[in-house]
Specification:
The complex is a heterodimer of chains A (about 240) and B (about 120). Chain A is of the alpha/beta class. In chain A, about 30% of the residues lie in helices and about 20% in strands. Chain A contains eight helices and eight strands. In chain A, helix 1 (about 15-30) runs parallel beside helix 4 and helix 2 crosses helix 8. Chain B has three helices and six strands. Chain B has helices at about 5-20, 40-50, 110-115; strands spanning about 25-30, 60-65, 65-70, 75-80, 95-100, 100-110. The longest helix of chain B has 16 residues, at about 5-20.
Chain lengths: ~240, ~120
């Protein structure tokens, strides 16, 4: 049987990038800065939001991408900030990450015009969320010291594409064999000089710096990101 | 398992370019810097292709190693670990020129016109 070869040259994630750009246009129009907040399950993402969002000098909201149920959303709603739950189980293969379309489908329930900052808490996972831009201004990842200092080398894509790393749960350092210097060396190996803050929600260490970083990012507005919807380049 | 989403995108792209014809083979390019596992991709491709014109098609993955171009000496070399450094002079002022690819290069279709003529 004869076959014919057709050149395609189409980026696998082009459809996602197109929707991410549409999200970004909506965010820009409403003047809202969007943070894609990532980390493994149990890293401390929700606690780090609880500590800063209620007391921010701007109006913040959260888009919660937890897999099932509204546990995290309930915790954040106690801060009296608007929280919208995305149920990722409805997306195709969506149990492991948020993509631009899942975020887009939740946007009608978010009053963007009333917000200065929207934090999208991604599904707890160090691999899958890294591949999918959602139209964010900046990516923040939480890397707790309980996870070991080799993580940047094992999950390089997420560490390479984030704009801030929160080295979290540092209050536990005296009880662990964790080598903080080795972690920072590994971090600099995959993403030289990426901003980082050592944080603990138990002692409050770094919480003010984390809050300041958020406020600076909001005031920088859309200038904070270089080319959020397109990078990393996947097409020829 | 984001390979499921990626496989789904590949099947959709192949289907849209096939315009109703049966797809026999799909060639994709995956850079080493993407966190895409080829075996997981192939497995998921088979699953999501079922029931579409792409069902049964062979997925061929062209895995491209990471390459950098040095800002100091201008040499282009392959890198296989972090930190990225020039393989010629050891400099760290490098630009990634290969390894971030993730695209469908081509598809092979059953030639229906040929079949009609025969």
């Amino acid at each position: 049987m004869h076959r014919i070869r057709v050149r395609v040259l189409e980026g696998v994630l082009d459809a996602n990038s197109t929707i991410a750009r549409a999200n970004r246009e909506d965010f820009d129009r409403a003047g809202v800065t969007v943070i894609n907040f990532m980390g493994s399950p149990g890293a401390g993402k929700t606690a780090l939001l609880e500590r800063v969002l209620g007391a921010l000098a701007c109006q913040a909201g959260v888009l919660e991408g937890d897999i099932r149920g509204t546990l995290d959303a309930d915790r954040l709603a106690a801060l009296h900030i608007p929280v919208t739950q995305i149920e990722t189980e409805s997306g195709f293969g969506g149990e492991c990450h948020l993509d631009a379309n899942m975020v887009r489908s939740a946007l009608p329930q978010v009053s963007l015009d009333e917000l200065d900052l929207l934090v999208v808490e991604n599904v707890g996972n160090l691999v899958c969320p890294a591949e999918f831009r959602i139209g964010e201004d900046a990516r923040v990842m939480v890397s707790p010291v309980t996870e070991g200092e080799d993580k940047p080398l094992k999950y390089p894509l997420m560490f390479r594409t984030c704009d801030l790393v929160l080295i979290h749960k540092v209050d536990l350092l005296p009880h662990l064999d964790y080598d903080l210097d080795a972690f920072e060396r590994n971090l600099d190996a995959v993403h030289p000089g990426v901003p980082r803050i050592r944080t603990s929600t138990r002692t409050g260490e770094g919480i003010e710096a984390w809050r300041d970083w958020l406020m600076e990012t909001v005031s920088r507005g859309s200038a904070a990101a270089s080319s959020p919807a397109d990078a990393p380049a996947g097409t020829p | 398992m984001h390979e499921l989403s990626i496989a789904d995108s590949i099947v959709r792209i192949a289907e849209s370019h096939a315009q109703g014809r049966k797809v026999m083979r799909v060639d994709v390019v995956v850079g080493h810097l993407r966190q895409v596992v080829p075996s997981a991709l192939s497995f998921n491709f088979e699953l999501v292709a079922a029931g579409t014109p792409v069902a049964g098609a062979e997925l061929v993955v062209d895995a491209r190693p990471a390459r950098v171009e040095c800002g100091r000496c201008g040499t282009e070399t392959e890198v296989d670990g972090f930190p990225f450094a020039c393989g010629a002079c050891g400099g760290f002022d490098v630009r990634i020129v290969q390894g971030e690819e993730l695209f469908v290069e081509s598809i092979e279709l059953e030639d229906s016109e040929e079949a009609d003529d025969a």
